[in-house]
Amino acid sequence: MSTQLPVAGPAEVRAALIRDLGADRRSVVGVVLVNGLAAAAGLVGPWLLGRIIDTIRAGSGDVLSAVDRLAFGALLFTVVQTVLAWWALKIGYRFGERTAARVRERFLQRTLALPPRVADHLPTGDLISRGSTDASLVALTLRSAVPEVLVATVHALFLIVAVLFLDLRLGLCGLVCLLGVGAAVRWYVRRARPVYLAVASTGAEIADVVASTAKGARTVELLGLERRRTEAAEASITQARSARLAALWLRTVLFPWSEIALALPVVGVLLIGGALYAHDLVSLGVVVTATVYLRQLVGPLDTLMLWIEQLQGAGASYARVEGLADIPEAELTPRVESVAGDRIRVDNAHYSYTGARDVLHGIDLVVQPGERLAIVGTSGAGKSTLARLLAGLDRPHIGSVTIGGTPVADLPPDQLREHVVLITQDHHVFHDTVRDNLLIAKPTATDDELHAALTAVGATWWNDLPHGLDTELGEETTLDDASAQQLSLARVVLADPHTLILDEATALLDPKTARQTERSLAAVLRGRTVIAIAHRLQTAHDADRIAVMEAGHLVELGTHQTLVTTNGPYGQLWQTWHAEPNSP
Ligand SMILES: Nc1ncnc2c1ncn2[C@@H]1O[C@H](COP(=O)(O)OP(=O)(O)OP(=O)(O)O)[C@@H](O)[C@H]1O
Which CATH code is given to the segment(s) 344-579? Predict the structure, then answer.
């Protein structure tokens, strides 16, 4: 597949948002209802103010006690409004937290469900920035923006409807003056999506360049590529800067324009209301109430403006987070009902990393269940590439690699690890408890099974852990290399695959760690099919059969005895090695 991750379209983002809101619809309805009550309570204060003015102007009866009653009413409703608004926000924030968690979990599940051959080719920086920066922005927006936008929208609608009810002429005047705000928002929203998508993707580009430079730091140093990598980083920073400046420019136009536009309704109503009052067509109290309502409108509209800006950035991030769902079906792996047997077959497998040059040229190989096969060959012969195909981390572009007739690379991760596991020197210990580090291999395992797996690989250190399986690794306890390797071998015991592929599992370890790891490995290998890339000919000697590779071809296949007798490439290698003074 392409190395670019898809971005969801506006319709998909809308659908995802509606689904997320719908999943917690009681809270959404709660926010709207409670806030509606708060907004209604907020309308009473200005209306009572208008009544106070009109009562004073009329001057009949007990003006003072009437004004006192009206003022007390205004105070009471202000308190009610404050309490209701606080309650609405509380429901809203809780809803936001739950929805944010749902979005993050969905992203994580989609990422974990990707088959290794897809995940392995994804741009790491882009994936990381979607899972961190983008997911956080979406979470923050859902937590804060959705409740506040709902609250502000309901409040603004109530105020507009109230002015219209109070006096239709003043209400219409206010609405016409509000058109300026609408025009500002329309202008901004039309331009914002591509600009914010560019901000997010150029940010991811920087992460990609930095991550790949850090990952290949030794190669960069060896080949003297520092200048080229620095230039690549500078180019991506320049692109990110232009994208951010474009976003900033949109903001510098939107905010001053909307500030001016927000003042217009008050000015308009004061002018028209003043003229109507001068001709006795409206009372002073109504003009004051309408002005206060429209003045109050600035609060929610300001909030909406601020969030519209944030929503554009969050919308772009939502599109990136949801984009993972758009990876074509063909790239994903449906569950395979059953795999018929444990036999591994490689038929005419051709593979190319770049699409230009094949590094494997028509490999044919059958590995019988329970067999120990060693793969030998000079550096660059294609041993590791073949191991990746056998482990389902990639698929050949011509030919096939199957287990029990099913293409290995078509198995979803949880099914794949029940059949075949590739063991290299790369083991990962998560900053998590020992239990959770092990359960990723078999989520249903009991504590007894976890203990048994650790014991099987000789990881006696688990007895000394301060909190047993609940000990946090990386915080309370750090594991040395041999123990970390044992932990990952215990995962293999739990996954219990019938086939193991070993690629440099101990080649670069220091002798003490290597010896310890080899002992642990021996326990794991028992009773399984083993395909080992052999760096020492002694390993090949002990195997049932040996496959010899040269320049991407499988040139010999047979038992040690046959190959030595034939005296082909392996026989000659064996003789040379035997002639060396320190060979056994
Ligand atoms: N990620 C990659 N991108 C492009 N080419 C690659 C990549 N990995 C390996 N190759 C090339 O594929 C060919 C086979 O490499 P491979 O690592 O499979 O050989 P190997 O026999 O395992 O070698 P070694 O024993 O040195 O690990 C080599 O020419 C190598 O340069």
Answer: 3.40.50.300
User: Is the Cβ atom of 353 under 6 angstroms away from ligand 1?
Assistant: yes
Which two structure tokens, joined as six digits, stand for 521? 């490995």
The residues spanned by each domain of the chain are: 14-331, 344-579
Spacing, Cα 382 to ligand 1 middle (Å): 6
Q: How far is CA 541 from the centre of its chain?
A: 47
- With a 6 A CB cut-off, is 381 part of the ligand 1 pocket? yes
CATH fold match for the domains 14-331 and 344-579: no
> What is d(CA 63, CA 56) in angstroms, rounded to the nearest whole number?
6
Treating both helix axes as pointing N-terminal to C-terminal, what angle do 284-322 and 63-113 enclose, rounded to 10 degrees?
Answer: 10
Specify the ligand 1 atom closest to the Cα of 535. 25
pLDDT along the chain (584 residues), means of 10: 69 86 87 83 84 82 81 90 88 84 84 75 78 82 76 84 90 87 85 86 84 84 87 92 92 84 87 90 88 86 81 84 72 61 88 86 91 89 91 89 86 82 80 88 89 85 83 78 84 89 69 70 83 81 90 91 90 79 54
The alpha carbon of 519 is separated from its chain's Cα centroid by a whole number of angstroms, namely 38
Quick check: 196 and 247 in contact, CB under 8 A? yes
Q: State which of 120, 361, 384 you would mutate to test the pocket of ligand 1, scoring each by most atoms of that ligand within 8 A of its C-beta.
A: 384
Q: What is the pTM of this model?
A: 0.61
Q: Please tell me the distance between residue 166's alpha carbon and the centre of ligand 1 in angstroms.
A: 79
Residue 212 Cβ < 6 Å to ligand 1? no
Architecture of domain 14-331: Up-down Bundle (1.20)
Q: Look up the ipTM and state it.
A: 0.96
Q: Whose CA is nearest to atom 31 of ligand 1?
A: 380
